[in-house]
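hey so i finally got around to running the thing on that chain from the lab meeting. sorry it took forever, my laptop kept dying and i had to restart like 3 times. anyway pasting the input first so we r on the same page abt which one it is
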Amino acid sequence: MIDIHLLRENPELFRKAFKARGFGDSALEEFFTLDSQWRAKLKDLNSLRHEKNEITASISSLVKAGKNPGSSKEKVKSINDRISALEAEMAEIENSRSRILNTMPNLLHESVPVCKGDENNQFHNFWGTAKVYSGDLDEFNQATEGNGKYTLIEGKPISHVDLLASMDLADLDRASKVSGARFYYLKNRLVKLELALVNYAVDFLSERGFNVVEPPYMLNLASMSGATDMETFKDTLYKMEGEDLYLISTSEHPIASMYMGETLEPSSLPLRIAGVSPCFRREAGAHGKDTKGIFRVHQFTKIEQFIFCHPDESWDFLEELLHNSEDIFRNLEIPYRVVNVCSGELGNLAAKKYDIEAWFPAQGKFREVVSASNDTDYQARSLGIKFRGKSGNQFVHTLNSTAVATTRTIVAIMENYQSEDGKKIKIPDVLVPYTGFDTIS
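ok and heres what got predicted. didnt touch it at all, straight out
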């Protein structure tokens, strides 16, 4: 949630941010109309309370003097009725105003490129040596702005969908039979590869000062709506029928709400937390896209980075999260590029977001495997998470980033590490101690 006091003091700041995101002014205009009504009624309410206090004091003086207060008591009763009516009207206006506030996005960092469309995300850097089929070279060069290092290959690698079948590594048909589309049975050495990715990422983040948690896999509405933008994600979340519970779509949300309503000691900051959990997503907006295979699925495992910090330090911590995720993919030796995400493609919570996009040679394109965001005080304000500051309690800043989303990373490994004949998949060296084998064949 945005700062209502800042909105009142500097509405043009928000108009500029809304325009950059492609939002209209209707929500702002509706807010200011309601806010003006609320403040006018507050003025009337305070005036009535003052009048009531004066009359009450007068009645007290008359009673002490042994005199009859007369009609003053009737006046107090009339004022009380008017106060009750005003309070009810203000509560109704406040509910409507809060509803609008909850739809307003965060302010943008000045470095966010003002544009719309993933294809316009700003190139930041490239790492690795990509295997590029000649027919995909133009797209590769365009995506890396000519800064990408590559090796040309004669033929396209085999799709991970075909490898899953030919190597007996997953059963998609039977999963579809029992659960529906976009589910899967992982099998054999692919199960061990997934576990290796989880254990590697947990060890990696533990060494970098993160406390590891396995969060609840379900959240109540108060926690979920505070941690995310329910209006945007309502079609993505799975709701438990007859329960005030939602399946989590990322461990970011249960970690963010972990300290809901609490005031933290400044000495406890920063809090670095790594979450390990399954993620459940309806992917309602992705019909017809990645319907085969395990790239875009309804259930997957993810290791998430999360930081609660002092507001003055959050931009440094965004770079730290990005650096951690880059190091993981460098250690896996998967070529990638980093992009600064367009203003029009940011979710409501993020003030800035980086995406890491791995190179998928069989698909001939870069695809997102990591998102790292600074939500500033927006998420903490919704959840009521503060710290004790020198000049009073302040809201913390919250940041999050993927470390590893297992299924997408597995697909990246299958495409980048397969042999020329498509009969073997080499395991990245950093994972061999966790898998106990160096090849899938």
